[in-house]
Design a protein that fits this description.
By secondary structure, this protein is α+β, with helices and mostly antiparallel strands. It is built from 5 helices and 10 strands; from the N terminus they run ββααββββαβαβββα. It is elongated, with a radius of gyration of 18 Å.
Length: 154
């Protein structure tokens, strides 16, 4: 049986960024609603609304539902599009750290923290699943229950 587990629960922060040229053209956002009025870039499929979820400094939950100008499942493409001023994007800090240091991207709304951590367990079928695999999936499911973002420190 093939079991593939993709785990991206690293401590890397996910942040909102845009190019200085984009900010010059659209203004610097002060609120999440301002971002909602701007062109955005997002992970996902074309013609889908995207939802970004955040926790503010005060612990208040916030979300933005938007129709991105560009949707892709490739972080490199999202980063390149942001660098070219096509839209604001929610992207892992690790992917854009050098761009932030170099000033080619600017962090937006730093008081908002995005929810982190995704776990995918992919297997071909439940039929013939060995007990060890079932036990692993049950353990992952029980151990990674949804908690408030402030408790999801790794």
């Amino acid at each position: 049986m093939l079991l593939v587990i993709f785990l991206s629960c690293q401590s890397d922060e996910v942040i909102l960024v845009a190019s200085p040229e984009f900010i010059a053209a659209h203004g610097e956002p002060q609120t999440l609603e301002d971002i909602g009025r701007m062109p955005t870039l997002s992970m996902g499929s074309a013609d889908e609304h995207s939802t970004w979820r955040f926790v503010g400094m005060d612990g208040e939950l916030a979300e933005l539902i938007h129709l991105p100008r560009l949707c892709t499942d490739d972080l490199f493409t999202l980063r390149r599009a942001a660098l070219q001023g096509i839209g604001a994007v929610l992207i892992p800090l690790l992917a854009v750290a050098n761009d932030l240091e170099g000033g080619t991207l600017v962090r937006l709304l730093p008081s908002l923290k995005a929810h982190e951590g995704v776990l995918h367990a992919v297997f071909p079928s439940r039929r013939g699943m060995v007990p060890a695999v079932r036990s692993l999936l049950d353990t992952l499911s029980e151990g990674l229950t949804v908690r408030p973002a402030s408790e999801n420190q790794i």
